[in-house]
Each structure stands twice: as C-alpha cells, then as structure tokens.
Amino acid sequence: MISKKKExxxxxxxxxxxxxxxxxxxxxxVFKPKQPHQRFDKPTCRFxxxxxxxxYARLKMRMEKNLRSIKAELETxxxxxxxxxxxxxxxxxxxxxxxxx
Length: 101
What we know:
This protein is mainly alpha-helical. The protein has 2 helices and 2 strands; from the N terminus they run ββαα.
C-alpha cells in the first residue's frame, strides 16, 4: 500500500510554517499565524473586528477595568456615608433618650 503524504490544510504552503509570531489586531494577544495575511488569533476576534471595528476587545477590557475601579470607589464612598449617617442617627437616639436608660 502506498501512503500519500497529507497536507496539513488545503492551500497550506510549507514556507508558512516559519512565519514569525504577531499580535492580534483586535485583542493584542501574540499568536503564530497560519497564513501570512492572518490578522486575528481566533474567529471571535475576527467577528468583533468586522462588526465593531478593530481594537474592540482592547477597548472593552479597558472599559471593564474602569467600571470596576468606579464601582470600588462608589462602594467606598457609600460605606463612608453610611457610617456618618449611622453615627448621626445614634447621636439623635442617645440625645432623645431619657436619662435613666
């Protein structure tokens, strides 16, 4: 039986095996391209770039990071306000309580 050497993929050329690593145009991850003109590391990045514009994933990550920091700041501010309101309520309660209690 004669075995034929199978190609890796249809249209694949052996010189493409040594392509240098590059960054995804959408998310910025480093990947090894399978073809010289490949710009995205996975289909999700290609889809996002096509529908939302290249760099969408990086923008999304930055926005999520900013939202997390804003949320943390708001939580801290709310805790401080709550503590002040609690102190004020306790002072009013103690000032209006009869002396025997």
